[in-house]
Amino acid sequence: MARWDIFCSVVDNYGDIGVTWRLARQLAAERGHALRLWVDDLGAFVRLCPDASASVESQHCSGVEVRQWCEPFPLVEPADVVIEAFACQLPPSYIEAMAASGSRRLWLNLEYLSAEDWVAGCHGLPSPQPGGLQKFFFFPGFVEGTGGLLREADLLARRRAFQADASAQQAFLLALGVEREAGARLISLFAYENAGLAGWLDALAVAPQATQLLVPQGKVLVDLLAWLGDAQLGPGDQRQRGSLSIHVLPFVAQDDYDRLLWCCDFNAVRGEDSFIRAQWAGRPLLWHIYPQEEGAHWDKLEAFMAIYSAALTPETAAAQAALWRAWNAGEGMEMAWPALLETWPALQRHAEQWCDDQAARSDLATALEQFYRNWLSYAA
Ligand code: TRH
What we know:
The chain is of the alpha/beta class. The protein has two domains: about 170 residues; about 200 residues, Rossmann fold (3-Layer(aba) Sandwich). The protein is built from 15 helices and 14 strands. The strands form two sheets. It has an eight-stranded mixed β-sheet with strand order 3-4-2-1-5-6-8-7, with helices on one face. A six-stranded mixed β-sheet has the order 11-12-10-9-13-14. Strand 7 and strand 8 form a beta hairpin. Helix 7 packs across helix 13. The mean pLDDT is about 95.
């Protein structure tokens, strides 16, 4: 058993805390490590873990010691493995304590996920730091030579059992106020503000097959309100437009969000963590990538689409690419959605196959632990 400190600075949204909270839980539950998760915005953490408190300095949640990352930073003994998530800056006093401790600490910067080619070349590279310390870059990824993806050991077994259990799904949805209509396509929608939503909703409202669209509270509600011509929408609200019924859901706990994805036939997701979880759901998906300055996110989007669609026929790959580009450009969904439906069975098969292929690789927590062991034996 080793002691691990994970530092998370919440930049915006929920991806930073979403990833680190999952990783901390997994390392504690599956590997028996002592985990401290330092978070500078407990308010964001509590959205994902509603049983927690946003106002205590220290609390234990799912086997993890969750600590408020405040200034001045308390005097603590540095852990054996120190992870700064997404290049957040560790407290200077903590770095000094690492340098002064006399024993070696593994210091890792856990990077954002990208499918771009350069990632494998940078994964694991060292970066010398003042005070004789060394930091390593750890990149998650989809291909050999990267650190893999977050995936709990029992995740796919739990997912498949839930998807095979119609009454468990029904009970779960009913608790969220959703009654599943026979023959309707169930879609979840988690996205940033998106001008392309109107075109998609237009297409869904006139489609021959009914759609139930489940929208957890969040940024995209602005565009939903504009399309509906409503002033306000909250959890539990429902609207019908043609063959489209819209259900507004509360923002649910992280494990429930997984279940929501497992229930749906199609998941629109965003950022990093929900994007990975939709892949583990084994269902077709639509990714709203986190927009970056100067359009840097487009290369990331294209890089992922290239590897995700490699095994698809050119027609299916083109339909999927057209939809993803339309969604991220914020226009053209009314054309791209009906075209995608033509490829539906192939997309469904592919989503399961992709999930299996990715699951055949080491997961991120295992890769981190392996990196630590290698580092220890190298250091010995
Ligand atoms: O919230 P995000 O947009 O986070 C983003 C990305 O991580 C991006 O890469 C980063 O640069 C930026 O933040 C700062 O999307 P993401 O990554 O999917 O995180 C959302 C988390 O919220 C995820 O862990 C799932 C969780 N969630 C719930 O727990 N309940 C819910 O109801 C919903 C909708 C999401």
